[in-house]
Amino acid sequence: MTGYAVVVDAQRLFARDKEPTKNEKSPGVEGNLSASFAAADEKLHRQSLHCDVLVAGGGMAGVCAALAAARHGAKTLLIQDRSRLGGNGSSEIKMHIVGADNHGARPGWREGGILEELRLDNAVRNPQQSWEVWDLLLYDKCISEPSLDILLDTIVCAAQVDNHHIHSITARCDKAETLYTVEAKIFIDCTGDSRLALEAGALFRLGRESQSEFGEALAPEQADKRTQGASILFTAKEYDRPMPFTPPAWARKLTKSDFIHRPIDNSWEYGYWWIELGGMGDVIRDNEKLRFELLAVVLGIWDYIKNSGSYPAAANWALETIGMIPGRRESRRIMGEHMLTQGDLEGHWKSFPDGVAFGGWNMDDHPPQGFDNPDIKPFNSVPLSEPYNIPLRSLYSKTIDNLMMAGRNISCSHVAFSSTRVMGTCSAVGQAAGTAAFLCATRDLLPVDLYRNQALLNELQQNLLRDDQGIRNLRNQDPLDLARRARVIAADFLPGAMPDHVINGFIRDEPGEWANRWAAPMSQEGVWIELAWDTPISLSVIQITFDTGFERELTFSSSNWVKSRIVHGPQPETVKSYRLSAFGTDGRERLLAEEQDNYQRLRRHRVTAADVARLRLSIHATHGAAEARIFEIRCYA
Fold first, then answer.
1. What band does 7 get if pLDDT is binned at 50, 70 and 90?
2. Up-side HSE of residue 99: CA atoms within 13 Å toward CB?
């Protein structure tokens, strides 16, 4: 195959009398697996469910998609095949979440939105840095959302499709001996492996495109089926006494030559992302083989650290946890209305009218041979000059009209995928897809309708901005935001950090800039900022976006290097104590809301206030910063 990656039409796979076309590939018996369950299904309990939005896959993209849809009011069901949420970012895999800020190397570009909320919650509620507590935090967020239900240990195993439209899916939970039939209006595939799309017969890609298909300099000359691989991570701990290690007989026997391009540092608490295999074969179907081989590599590496004599300081170190599930990087990518490519990431994105999230991780490809080829570097990372927008058109299927996707399976080339695949970006894409799904499900629309109707697209983008989603080159133009009509004054401000910045429509700054924040030095009496209207208004919602230190990395990791850069608690820039007061035309002050221990970036207060001529935000304390900092204030009737 020259000039094309593998393109798979799952519907073709179901029809035995059809052969794959020239540019399609049939990997065998794949797709609708319901027939294989027929005999066992007779003994299972049957249950029918209905929802507006169904999210398949409970990794970070799925969690953010489900929370976004449910918070806007869509009745949402999240189905996850594991007993916990978070996917590669959970305790089962233990991969830290990275994104557009490149481990803090691109300051100011943390994702915001739901992911920022989760990160801030974890920093405060999980100071002991427990992976299982992080799992619980995600579970708590989901079950606490009134419009969101979740089914754990449940896998989507079939889809009922007619005329390119999913009417229902079948999901199976062997632990509960239950077979679910779920009807929904919009379906979002966040499974990573595109299992829902596969069952629905959606068109998808697998492997690497050729340079000639999209003009991508980083692509191989010829297309192939090779992918990035899967990894198993481990953690280790230092003790106060020698801790010997005897590997099992099946552990790999490694030598110094295996680590020419894979240095082992003198700290072994968290290792190593480059323990990677599977890119040369089928990373899905080879799962059991890969589990064994990856464990053999993990134990071989630990044997080398402990017993080769090269690391005497490791004498008191012992393994603490070893992953048992290969964490996949890449498999199927669903084909959407737009295929995101290298050229898009390098500048063409600026012409997209439908940006709904941003990415910015380097184009970071891994050789498909992985650890089995020690003679080459385990990655090829090409920096991007700036973050880029991801379009809505890459988040819905071109062949199944009510199927959306979020995560590593969005519509992009392999080269573009090497950047979009990281979980911070996947989370932002999940929030975008969930918000779009809410609009579609509650108004009987299809995802393509949002793109083709400018008013609907504007509404989607403005909803995302209101929820603290970052979108490049887009400002708040919400016609319902009454703050945009206000005059802004403040007790004080720092040079350049003007009071009216809180209504200029932007909610992040470049490092060293104060172009989109108000800031004022704190005093013993505190400091205040005030919005005033010529004509008094009524208020029902007041929204504030605080500064939570986007200049710094904030993630959860077992790496000492990463942990040393993180503030494990409230971020010092954040306003801790504040109050909101309204003043009527009579000049009388009314207390609307008060907070003594805030640590979140986005806060909404529901109030009941009429005849409001002025709204004052009084700030009494921060979590350490010498100045109060506010990005935005919004007001809604």
1. low
2. 32
Picking from 623, 626, 526, 517, the residue whose alpha carbon sits closest to that of residue 581 is 526
Tokens of 313: 């300081």
187 neighbors 156 (Cβ within 8 angstroms): no
Edge-to-edge strand list for the sheet holding 317-322: 270-271, 234-238, 317-322
Q: What is the CATH architecture of 482-636?
A: Sandwich (2.60)
CA 33/CA 14 separation, integer angstroms: 10
Query: For residue 11, is pLDDT > 60?
Result: no
**Residue ranges per domain, the chain?**
48-200+330-466, 230-328, 482-636
Place of tokens 């959407």: 336
Q: Is 12 within 8 Å of 210 (Cβ atoms)?
A: no
User: Do the Cβ atoms of 574 and 598 come closer than 8 Å?
Assistant: yes
How many alpha carbons lie under 13 Å from residue 440 in its C-beta half-sphere?
A: 31
* CATH numeric code, 48-200+330-466: 3.50.50.60
Q: Which residues of 584-594 are buried (b: 16+ CB within 10 A; e: fewer)?
A: eeeeeeeebbe
| Cα–Cα distance measured from residue 102 to residue 422, given in angstroms and rounded to the nearest whole number | 10
For residue 564, give both structure tokens. Answer: 């040393």
Question: How far is it, in rounded angstroms, from Cα 334 to Cα 257?
Answer: 39
**φ and ψ at 271, to 5 degrees?**
-155, 160
What is the tens place of the pLDDT at every residue in 306-351?
A: 999 999 999 999 999 999 999 999 999 999 999 999 999 999 999 9
Closest to 80 measured CA to CA, from 192, 161, 165: 192
On the question of pLDDT at 24 being above 50, the answer is: no
Cβ neighbour number for residue 449 with a 10 Å cutoff:
15
